[in-house]
C-alpha cells in the first residue's frame, strides 16, 4: 500500500521520529517542510529565526509515523545553535521544494527506512539515544566521482 499523509488509522503501530532540516540560508529548507506539512509553496519565504517546529503524520502500511520536524535557520549567526536542534534526530534532510517533485517521496522513504520495531508513546521518540541514522542514498545513482549529483 502506498504511503499517504494523513492522520493515524485505527489499530496501527505508532512511531515518532525527530527529523531535522539542515543547510545554508535560502536553499529551501522551510519551503520543503511547508510543502510536505501544508502542501504550500511561497516564492518569497521569510528567513527562519533559530528554528521552526512542525509535525506531520503519515500512514505507512500498518504503522503510523509521526515526524517531529525541526527546520533550522541557515544564517551563519545561528550555526552555533544547530547541534541543539539536530541532537537525537533519526534523520536529516538537505533538498528543494519549488516544484513539489519528490517532496512526499523523500519523507515516505525516510518513514520506510526508520526502524519501526518498537512502538513509541507520545514524547518518547525524540530522544534518539542509541539509534543510528538512515542512509537513503542508492549507490547505483552515484556518478563516477562518488557524489550523488553531477
Automatic annotation (TrEMBL):
Gene Ontology molecular functions: GTP binding; GTPase activity
Gly residues bias spans: 121-131
UniProt region (Disordered), positions on chain: 117-150
Higher taxonomy: Eukaryota, Metazoa, Chordata, Craniata, Vertebrata
Species whose genome carries this gene: Bagarius yarrelli (Goonch)
Matching Pfam families: Ras (PF00071)
Family in the record: Belongs to the small GTPase superfamily. Rab family.
Biased composition (Polar residues): 137-150
Name of the protein in its database record: Ras-related protein Rab-5C
Keywords for the protein's UniProt record, in alphabetical order: GTP-binding, Nucleotide-binding
